[in-house]
Design goal:
By secondary structure, the protein is mostly helical. Helices cover 81% and strands 0% of the residues. The protein is built from 17 helices and no strands. Helix 8 runs parallel beside helix 10, helix 8 runs parallel beside helix 17 (333-356) and helix 10 runs antiparallel to helix 11 (217-230). The longest helix is centred in the N-terminal third of the chain and has 31 residues, at 2-32.
Length: 360
């Protein structure tokens, strides 16, 4: 056992240390510049460092380990930030809007995937990232669909671009179209459903509060809606896992000659492909919910939530190190168009739904 651990350390430590060197400053810079966030900073720094590598092979195993395994651990730990009962109770009003905006984004992504011939995995990542919760949704989805690091980096870049635009443009836009300035409810729901990443939702809602001296009304509403929206990670990743497992099983069936061989192959593939870390994510959410309902203080889970954020940043550093920035720029046009269409579609549907159910 000790030899096995030693071999693993020898195999991975150089790449892991390199990722940590990028991730640690990115984490603290993300605290200083929340509208950008540590994950985006880590990807950018990773891509810059990658430009200066002539031979990355001594670091390759460790970088791969961080971009795959540590990313899955990050998603599992995210579950400890979710009290399901509180989220569902306080987010009930916004639920029809959340369902509508998620459906809109996924439909737009699917249609543009067909029309513009954008690769399926990048389309899935942009669609899911736009509709649910930006980087966290991409982090959860990427291992499920076996997306490569270039695809993850591209999706994160697209989401980041429209996050920044939303944080800057939505508060004056909300004032222009006549959102209530006496209460933060309507704009909070809009920010929570129409902005992708948590950092940008927070920035957008806090700006509205400061514009109209609303304390934290808008921010409280927006964050609750955003957490409710985050729950959609669970069904969407499970559906994607099922579809991928089914597709792989079908391909395996075509490649094997007998029924016995097919059954054996499918069992092996199912165990290998199904993202069991999503089930652990659900379990972590359930543990948090039960513990808080039994009287535990929610602050107990804050260190675990913070660790999950750092793990995502660490994984993004690895993804940046594995990303060809030249290729990213050359192939970035169509995914950017998709991100724009998803962004506009989500904002429009959020406004329409609020009008229909008399929130604005």
């Amino acid at each position: 056992m000790s030899n096995k651990i030693l071999n693993s350390l020898t195999k991975y430590y150089k790449g892991v240390i390199l990722c940590l060197i990028i991730a640690i400053p990115s984490y603290f810079l993300g605290k200083q510049f929340p509208i950008i966030g540590g994950a985006v900073i880590a990807i950018i720094l990773g891509m810059i460092v990658n430009l200066f590598f002539k031979d990355k092979s001594p670091y390759g195993n460790g970088i791969q380990f961080v971009s795959k395994k540590v990313l899955q651990w990050a998603v599992i730990l995210l579950g400890f930030g979710m009290n399901l009962s509180v989220i569902l109770k306080t987010g009930r009003q916004s639920l029809p809007i959340i369902v509508s905006t998620i459906a809109t984004s996924l439909i737009i992504a699917f249609l543009l995937h067909k029309i513009l011939h954008i690769p399926g995995k990048i389309s899935t990542l942009v669609g899911v990232g736009s509709s649910i919760c930006g980087g966290s949704a991409i982090a959860a989805t990427a291992p499920v669909i076996d997306a490569d690091d270039d695809e993850v980096a591209q999706a994160i870049s697209v989401i980041f671009f429209f996050n920044v635009l939303a944080a800057i443009l939505f508060p004056p836009f909300g004032n222009l179209i006549g959102f209530s300035t006496q209460s933060g409810e309507a704009f909070g729901i809009f920010a929570g459903t129409a902005v992708n990443d948590t950092s940008s939702v927070t920035s957008c809602a806090a700006t509205w509060d400061s514009m109209w001296n609303l304390g934290s009304q808008t921010l409280d509403t927006a964050v609750t809606v955003k957490l409710t929206r985050t729950l959609a990670i669970i069904p969407i990743t499970l559906v994607l896992a099922f579809l991928r497992t089914k597709k792989t099983g079908r391909l395996t069936s075509q490649q094997t000659g007998t029924a016995d061989q097919t059954t054996k192959k499918e069992k092996v593939k199912l165990k290998k492909i199904f993202p069991f870390f999503i089930l652990y994510f659900i379990l972590a959410s359930v543990i948090t919910t039960v513990a808080i309902n039994l009287g535990a203080n929610a602050d107990v889970f804050k260190p675990v939530k913070e660790l999950s954020k750092f793990f995502i940043i660490l994984a993004m550093a690895a993804i940046g190190l594995n990303t060809n920035v030249v290729k990213l720029i050359k192939t970035g046009g169509k995914p950017l168009i998709m991100g724009f269409c998803c962004w506009v579609g989500i904002a429009a549907v959020s406004l329409c739904m609020q009008f229909l159910i008399n929130i604005i």
